[in-house]
Please model this.
Amino acid sequence: MIAVLAGMTVAAQAQDKVKKSPEERAKARTEHMTKELGLSPEQASKLEAINLKYADKGAELRKEREAERAEARREGKELRDAHEAEMKAVLTPDQFAKWMAKREEMKEKRMEHRKDMRQDRLEDRKGTQGQ
Model:
């Protein structure tokens, strides 16, 4: 039952695009659990401390992952820039322009594919919520 409630809380939070502080997340989760499980004030107080502990740990993990992603993006950009510079030195201006246009076309196709996949997942989630 608790796993189901935690899943419902996470799903509700995922729909809410406003980033909440760990304290706000812990408080909201505790309020939801108090209502759904009929917790006593003592239980609610203890659970809020537990929820805050794990909300803080989750926020810390997200912050670390974002720093890692930012570093990976920076390194990827440096690699792409170096590759592009070497290609530009070998290709004629016309060939280079064609190559860049083709690369942009492929990027747009990937973005469209990702958009379609996100839409499919969203529709799948909506379909399973109604059951």
